[in-house]
Each structure stands twice: as structure tokens, then as C-alpha cells.
């Protein structure tokens, strides 16, 4: 098993004290030139590297940031992580990424693991299952630096970066209405998440503005965000099997949206001839889908950067930051063939 060299190992090999070796490695003026040269050459020979955990205990900082997201393969979060890393690394911080796979238990375990690694702060997007936020409340009460992004907590006055979910869903629904669709279904992630509820409110507001009745049977929730096998397909089958099926679907989650096209095609439906489709997604290939997909796009990379800048400011502040910082950015509606005017 690989065992890295320690200061004690170097001291023993050279017949020096550990304090002498430590000072030599740190370039102390108290250590003679020959001794420094001897220590540094031997350290290079055995590929000595400082222990980051030991350093973090000594300095009370690890120069690392923990990231908690549902899934790295998710188009939104992969782009957000790129934004996080671009700021973190240029600011001298390492990034430790963990995935919850929409599990509250795994989220809690990930947070505890990151804390055991002495991260200086956390960037968090809640899992679909999370309803108990007591662990985050405790950390917040102790002044631990945390920033929530995209999927945020409601009952903790902490730092957060979000998009205008209401406006994004409103504009997408209204575009479908203006294209002639009046029977519009809403396919969503769990209502546990605030962004799910805000997107539903935008959908609902657009229908009410156009005097369209909101039908409960047109609203389907995928409580695991589409990560459970068959979840999206079951929801779509229920929608399309209704006596009066929807003419269009707005999907309010990245994984749900990208999953809809192949499932609808498998079920024998043409898009948009049989059912139109619009959805929240940051997929880079949405334009290459057949047909090209109308999307509500979030500035994920920028949001990752903003959240990281916010967190580092809190970590490096000389004084406690009591006032929570909150930033909201706009979504972008990109209209393509999948939501073209209905031929009805």
C-alpha cells in the first residue's frame, strides 16, 4: 500500500529533529544553507508533499470548497460546476464534488464527509428528497460559510443564487398559448423544491392570464426528478392516456426535459404534430434533437461563478457576515420547432 513520506520520516533518514526539518521546508532563516539544501533535496527525492489535513488543522483552513449537487451528469449542474471551478481554482481553492442522486440520506452523509475533510465552505443545491433542513440550520447558526444555488432552502436566511423561475415558466407557457395550444400539461420534479413550486406558479399565472382553466390531471410530479427508472415514462403515459390529453407539455426539470423526446417517440407521438414540448434544460444538444427543442435556459456557468465568489467572500471576510446575500438572474427562452404553432 502506498504510504507518503512525512516530516518524521525525513528527520529519521537525515538524523535531524522534526522541528529542524519543518523549519527547513518552510525556508526559515534559523536553518543553515547546507541543512536546508540537504532537507530540500531529500524531500524532492522521496516526493514529499505536505499533508493537507495536518495543514488545515494547523491553519484552521483547508483552501477547499465542498460542492453538493444531485448529479454531475445533469446538464445544468455540469455547467455550474465548471463555473464553480473557474473561480475557485483561480482564487487558490480546491473543489470537492459530491452527488446526492436525489437522496436526502446521501446528502446528509456527503455534508458530514465534507465537514470531516475540513472544507472552508459549502455550495449546495438541495436533493429532491430533502425536507429536513435542521443540519443546515445548525451549521448556519454556528456561522459556517454556505451558499445555496438553484435549489435553495426557504427557512434559513442564508446566501443564495437563483434564477427567476416564475418568469421563465410564465414566458414558456405563454409562448405555447400564443402558438395556439390551450391544453398544456406541466411535468415537474418534486414540490419539495422551491424552484418546482415557483415554476408551477409561473405556468399557472400564464394560463389564468389567458383565461385557461387549470386542470389538476394535467399536472404530474416526478418525485425523484426523473432519476428513478420509469418515472418519466409513467407520468407521460398517464398524461397521454387521459380522455382529453394535452396538446403541449412544459417540463420544468433538466433531466425530465431531455428524457421526454425519446419516450414520446417510443410511445408513437410526433413532436410537435401530436404534442408540443418545451422545457427547462441546459443541454448543449437541444438544438440537435429531432425536432430541435424549445428550452428555458439558465445561465448555469455564471450562477456557479456567482455562488463561488459569494462563498469565498464570506470565507475570507475578516468579520462575521450576518446579512444574507441573495442574487437572482434571468432565464432565457429559446424558441425552436418543438413548440411551433399547433395545427388544430
From TrEMBL:
Q: Which InterPro entries does the record associate with it? A: HTH_LacI, Lambda_DNA-bd_dom_sf, Peripla_BP/Lac1_sug-bd_dom, Peripla_BP_I
Q: Which SMART domains match?
A: HTH_LACI
Could you list this entry's UniProt keywords, alphabetically sorted: DNA-binding, Transcription, Transcription regulation
Q: Name one Pfam family in it.
A: LacI
MF annotations from Gene Ontology: DNA-binding transcription factor activity; transcription cis-regulatory region binding
SUPFAM superfamilies per the record?
A: lambda repressor-like DNA-binding domains (SSF47413), Periplasmic binding protein-like I (SSF53822)
HTH lacI-type domain: residues covered: 5-59
Give the top-rank taxon of the lineage listed in the UniProt record for this protein.
Bacteria
Q: What is this protein called?
A: Substrate-binding domain-containing protein
Q: Which organism is it from?
A: Mucilaginibacter aquatilis
Amino acid at each position: 500500500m502506498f504510504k507518503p513520506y512525512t516530516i518524521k520520516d525525513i528527520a529519521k533518514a537525515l538524523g535531524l529533529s522534526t522541528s529542524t526539518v519543518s523549519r527547513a521546508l518552510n525556508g526559515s532563516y534559523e536553518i543553515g544553507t547546507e541543512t536546508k539544501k540537504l532537507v530540500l533535496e531529500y524531500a524532492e527525492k522521496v516526493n514529499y508533499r505536505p499533508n493537507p489535513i495536518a495543514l488545515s488543522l494547523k491553519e484552521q483552513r483547508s483552501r477547499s470548497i465542498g460542492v453538493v449537487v444531485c448529479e454531475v451528469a445533469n446538464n445544468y449542474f455540469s455547467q455550474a460546476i465548471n463555473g464553480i471551478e473557474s473561480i475557485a481554482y483561480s482564487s487558490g481553492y480546491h473543489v470537492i464534488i459530491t452527488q446526492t442522486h436525489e437522496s436526502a440520506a446521501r446528502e446528509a452523509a456527503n455534508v458530514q464527509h465534507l465537514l470531516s475533510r475540513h472544507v472552508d465552505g459549502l455550495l449546495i443545491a438541495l436533493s429532491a428528497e430533502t425536507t429536513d433542513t435542521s443540519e443546515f440550520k445548525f451549521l448556519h447558526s454556528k456561522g459556517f460559510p454556505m451558499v445555496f444555488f438553484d435549489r435553495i432552502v426557504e427557512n434559513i436566511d442564508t446566501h443564495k443564487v437563483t434564477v427567476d423561475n416564475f418568469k421563465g415558466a410564465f414566458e414558456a407557457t405563454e409562448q405555447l398559448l400564443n402558438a395556439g395550444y390551450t391544453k398544456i400539461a406541466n411535468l415537474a420534479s418534486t414540490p419539495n423544491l422551491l424552484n418546482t413550486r415557483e415554476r408551477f406558479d409561473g405556468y399557472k399565472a400564464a394560463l389564468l392570464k389567458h383565461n385557461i382553466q387549470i386542470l389538476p390531471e394535467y399536472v404530474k410530479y416526478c418525485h425523484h426528478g426523473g432519476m428513478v427508472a420509469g418515472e418519466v415514462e409513467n407520468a407521460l403515459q398517464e398524461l397521454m392516456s387521459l380522455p382529453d390529453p394535452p396538446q403541449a407539455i412544459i417540463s420544468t426539470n433538466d433531466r425530465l426535459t431531455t428524457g421526454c423526446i425519446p419516450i414520446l417517440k417510443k410511445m408513437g407521438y410526433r413532436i410537435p404534430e401530436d404534442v408540443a414540448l418545451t422545457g427547462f434544460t441546459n443541454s448543449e444538444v437541444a438544438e440537435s434533437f429531432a425536432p430541435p427543442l424549445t428550452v428555458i435556459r439558465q445561465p448555469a456557468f455564471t450562477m456557479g461563478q456567482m455562488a463561488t465568489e459569494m462563498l469565498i467572500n464570506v470565507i475570507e471576510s475578516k468579520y462575521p457576515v450576518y446579512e444574507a446575500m441573495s442574487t437572482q438572474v434571468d432565464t432565457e427562452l429559446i424558441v425552436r420547432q418543438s413548440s411551433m404553432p399547433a395545427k388544430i
